[in-house]
Write the C-alpha cells for this entry.
Amino acid sequence: MTSIDEKYEDLRETIGAMKSLERACYSCTNYLSSKGSLNRRWREKICEWYFKMVDHFEFSREVVSVSVSLLDRYLSIQEDATMSTDDCDSGKSGDATDPAIAQLAAISTLHLAVKLNERRKIKMSSLADLSRGQFTTEMLGRMEMSILATLKWHVNPITPLQFMNKFMNLIDIQDPIVRHNMFEMARFLSELSVCDHFFLTVPSSVVAYACLAVALEFSFSDSLKPAANVLQQLASRTSYVAGMSSDDADVRSAVDRVRLIYVQSAAFPKQTVELKSQYKVGVSSVEHSPTSIMK
C-alpha cells in the first residue's frame, strides 16, 4: 500500500459505505413519460416550486435535493403507490402517475424533507392552503404515511453535496479563496442538476464527481495551477477511494451534461458567448436554473 493509499484509507471506507447505501436504498428508475402528464416539464416545475419554497422560508437548498429524491423514488415505485385523492379512507388504489396524486406527493415530500432536515417546520395546514382547497391536511398526512411505507422509511438520501464534501478531501488546492469559490460553483451545479431529468437515474456519487470536475474546469485562471492537473488528481484519487473511473461511460456522460446545463444557464458568464453557442442542441429542459427562476 502506498503512502497515498494509506492517507485516504479511512475516506475510502466511508465513501464505500455511502455508495453501498446509495445502491441498496436510494436508486431510482425513470417514471417520466414523453406523452403523459408526468413529463420532463412537469418535474422541472415541481423542482422550481421546491426552490421557491425553500428560499422563501430561508431553508437550506439541500432540502430540495432530499424532496426530489423522495418524490422521484416514490413515483418510480408505481405498483406500491396506493393513495386515492378522491376518497382517502376508501382503500381504493390510486395511480401515482395521476397528476393530482403526484402533486399531493410533491407537497408531502417537501413537508417530510423539511421535518427531517430543518429545525423550523412548515405547518401542514399552510401547505394545504397552498393547494387552494385541492388537498386537506388529512390527505397530506395520509400521503406522507404512504410515502414512508412505499420507501420503507429510506428517507435520508445521500445527496451530491454530501459526496462532494468527501471528494473535496482529495483535492490539493492551497488558495482558500479559490477552493471556496470552486466548491460553491460545484454546489450551484448540483442545484442545476436537480432540475434536469437526465440525472433522475444517475447516482449522487456520479453527480458529485461531475459537478466538481466541471467546477474545476471553469474555476482556474492562467496564473494558478492548471485545472488539468487538479482534474487528474481528482480522477486518480476518486478511482481509488470510490472505485469510480473518469473514463466510465456514465461518468463521462454526467460530466458532459453538467457542463452543458452550466453553459446554457443564466449564470454562465456573458463574455463567453462563443462557447455557449456550441451547446445549443437539446437543452430545452434546462432553460430555467435555480438562479434564473428566482429573478
Notes: DSSP finds 13 helices and no strands in the chain. The CA atoms of residues 161 and 187 lie 7 Å apart.
